[in-house]
Design brief:
The chain is of the alpha/beta class and 539 residues long. The chain is built from 17 helices and 18 strands.
Length: 539
């Protein structure tokens, strides 16, 4: 009976750990199976340089925002080490010595900063914030909504469709138009409707292309911008982000400790080789070493192309579902670069190596929407790494001194783009040259940056697929394009965290609300299993 459980969770990333925590809290005998030798997945803290074992970095994901208070509260994550500090302003310096700072809570400073480039845009910014907040007030709660089975004529499904429609009844004609724009427009077209200054539009563009195989001129990127602007970190500010003390690995550690406190068993070096199916129902899993574990409920939180195309026999799945998963787009041109630096950047626009507020937030590299679009076109059409990449950078050690020794900082850079087929080979030399160009670009803005670099770690799409199972290197387990959102995520008829196999649930970032370290997919997979009464032990 040692290998008989009420629930088996495949994948020990944050979604898997959160799902296991809820199952265990509900009284189910639960086990998490993680293929790697550590839990956490992309929410990871590591020491990548053997010569400096005391240098720690947030390896892949790097900031917190979207995790609902419900999950934090019910799993008591605060008790287990979840501690997020909201970070400072969005900051973009320019070669001419000017800079923009955008604060979450200081409209006066924002006006003064934007006025350097456009007084009209400075006056528009509060209206933009209010408009975006209004749309987020409607769409934000939908992140916690199970997508309905649109097109189904079953009474239960029709009722679910009506419930969703009722929850959005306050939109009105203008509101529906605004939502339509966000789901279909490019972020550059949307920003062109509001703003005139390239620097202002450049800063706001960043959230529309993060993690996305699309430039700012591509339709649908307006929604990506909204997705990254919905959450907060408990400070009440739309779209605000924060640093977890101890790096992102501490978020996963908190989720793991919470799950274990409720009785969940966590097994590492336990790679699943097959999901066992009998008569259309899951009965457990077989590990690659041949060991079998039995349970009436299995939750997969790994990439859908792994779960449904590698771990299950195709004959056990409907042909149209298999086709949908095969066609699931999961491209990426992301490169994560972690720097250890001996001093803070001394920007021409804001001189000083001493800690200042512009060091504590996002230290961007995106001079305009055209700058980002050109970077994408280099990778997409010219099939080469961007000559001038865009970067979403942060220096978490400004607010979290636990990561590095005193006087040393971690500059964590989320960068784009390299060709999406770089997932097939490491491309080490080209990645080094790509990183060199980023160093040079930042050094134009802060002349001391290049000489301050002690170490750097470069993680390309190949590494993300090989190390984390992120097919294509895509951090969302699938692109956030219009045809891969809400009821289409990851396939029509299966966006409700259920799958064609009875007892098998899907809680990866490829499901609705996935993207970012939010935990919603893992939580929703548990809730659906509970609703189906799939686990007799759940309360």
């Amino acid at each position: 009976m040692s290998n008989v459980y009420d629930a088996i969770v495949i994948g020990g990333g944050h979604n898997g750990l959160i799902s296991a925590g809820f199952f265990a809290k509900a009284g189910a005998r639960t086990v998490v199976l993680e293929a790697r030798n550590k839990t956490g997945g992309a929410a990871d803290t590591s020491s990548p340089w053997p010569e400096h074992p005391d240098f720690k970095v947030t390896t892949y994901s790097y900031v917190m925002s979207l995790m609902p208070p419900t999950i934090i509260r019910e799993l008591q994550l605060d008790r287990h080490g979840y501690e997020v500090t909201p970070f400072g302003p969005y900051y973009q310096a320019y070669p001419d010595g000017r800079a923009i700072k955008l604060y979450a809570d200081d409209a006066k400073k924002n006006y003064e900063s934007i006025s350097q480039f456009s007084k009209k845009d400075a006056e528009t910014m509060p209206k933009w914030d209010a408009w975006l907040s209004g749309v987020a007030d409607v769409l934000g709660p939908l992140l916690l909504q199970v997508p309905p089975r649109l097109g189904s004529m079953r009474v239960r499904d029709l009722l679910e469709q009506l419930r969703v429609a009722w929850k959005t009844r306050g939109l009105g004609i203008r509101g529906v138009g605004d939502v339509t724009k966000l789901f279909t427009m490019s972020v550059s077209d949307l920003l062109n409707e509001w703003f005139e200054s390239d620097p202002v539009k450049g800063m706001l563009t960043v959230n529309g292309v993060i993690g996305t195989w699309a430039g700012p001129d591509s339709p649908g990127t307006a929604y990506v911008m909204l997705h990254h602007s919905i959450g907060d970190v408990g400070d009440g500010h739309l779209g605000s982000w924060g640093y977890q003390r101890g790096g992102m690995g501490a978020v996963s550690d908190a989720c793991r400790r919470a799950a274990e406190s409720f009785g969940a068993e966590i097994r590492t070096d336990a790679r699943v080789g097959k999901i066992l199916v009998r008569d259309g129902r899951t009965v457990g899993v077989a590990l690659e070493n041949g060991e079998e574990l039995r349970a009436p409920v299995v939750v997969t939180t790994v990439h859908p192309k792994i779960a449904f195309l590698k771990l299950i026999d195709e004959t056990d799945l409907p042909a149209d579902f298999v086709r949908d998963i095969r066609n699931w787009r999961t491209r990426s041109g992301v490169v994560k670069i972690n720097f250890a630096i001996s001093e803070l950047p001394d920007f021409i626009a804001d001189p000083g190596k001493n800690l200042q507020d512009h060091h504590t937030g996002s230290v961007e590299l995106c001079f305009s929407a055209d700058f980002a679009e050109k970077a994408f076109q280099d990778a997409h059409f010219l099939r080469k790494a961007s000559e001038r990449p865009f970067v979403d950078g942060v220096i978490p050690t400004t607010l979290d001194p636990t990561l590095m020794p005193e006087g040393v900082h971690n500059f964590s850079m989320f960068t784009q783009w390299v060709p999406d087929d770089w997932v097939d080979e490491p491309h080490r030399d080209e990645l080094e040259q790509y990183a060199d160009r980023i160093v040079d670009l930042y050094t134009e803005l802060a002349p001391n940056f290049k000489s301050s670099v002690i170490e750097r770690q470069i993680i390309g799409p190949y590494d993300m697929e090989q190390e984390l199972g992120l097919i294509g290197g895509n951090i969302f387990h699938g692109e956030l394009s219009v045809d891969q959102l809400f009821h289409m995520r990851p396939a029509p008829g299966y966006a409700d965290y259920r799958t064609p196999i009875h007892g098998l649930y899907h809680g990866s970032s490829a499901t609705h609300a996935g993207g970012g370290v939010c935990g919603i997919p893992g939580w929703q997979a548990f809730r659906q299993a509970k609703r189906d009464r799939s686990v007799a032990s759940t309360k």
